[in-house]
Amino acid sequence: MRSVPPRLRGPLAMLIGGAVLAAIVVPGHGWGALVFLWPFTVVFSVAWYLWGGRDSDFGALIRDRPDERQAQRRLKTQALVGVVMSGTAVVVYLAALAAKVPLWPLDIFLIVPAVTFIIGWAIYREPRDDRDEGPATESPADRLPADDVVSGHRVVVVVLSGDRQAATAPRVAVIG
């Protein structure tokens, strides 16, 4: 899929998904079901393509070229969606329990988020000992002493924030 331009990846995936959905729906419900499916798929794909061409935050996300701020926003949005969907699954399960309907179809909506949470907790945990996790935890300010001399110039490292995570790319001024 890397040979397809980033702007076309989303609309192409939607059209393929619509074709797969049509292949599943037609045998069970007949060709009449496609009257509603194909216009939605085509219009949504074209809108996604046009929106991806805009010079905006969402356009950059569609083109799969977000900057750090946009990627962080996307991550937070996905986390919110996960929390809301998990909470919704619990509410629906309790409503089904109160209505005394079969609960087995709803079990998967409770089990999958719980198992995913446990797996994510294990994958993204912090190391138990004080090992260095890699270059992301080391600040360039730690590597450059304040009195380092480069080509006869004094190098001064200026960290613009008290946060050590923000110090991963400090400003370096060469004083001549």
Structure commentary:
It is a single chain. With 176 residues, the chain is mainly α. The chain folds into three domains: 1-65, no CATH class; 67-127; 138-175, no CATH class. It has helices spanning 6-29, 34-52, 57-62, 68-99, 104-123, 140-143; strands at 149-150, 153-158, 171-175. The protein has a three-stranded antiparallel sheet with strand order 1-2-3, with no helix packed on it. Strand 1 and strand 2 (153-158) form a beta hairpin. The two termini are 50 Å apart. The mean pLDDT is 77.
Please count the helical segments: 6
SSE succession: HHHHHHEEE
Largest sheet: 3 strands, antiparallel
Helix/strand-derived class?
mainly alpha
Give the total of domains.
3
- Identify low-pLDDT runs: none
Helix % is: 55-70%
Measured between the Cα atoms of the first and last residue, the distance is 50 Å
Q: How are the strands of the largest sheet arranged?
A: 1-2-3
Percent in strands: 5-15%
Report the average pLDDT across residues: 77
Rg, alpha carbons:
25 Å
How many strands in all? 3
Coarse shape: flat
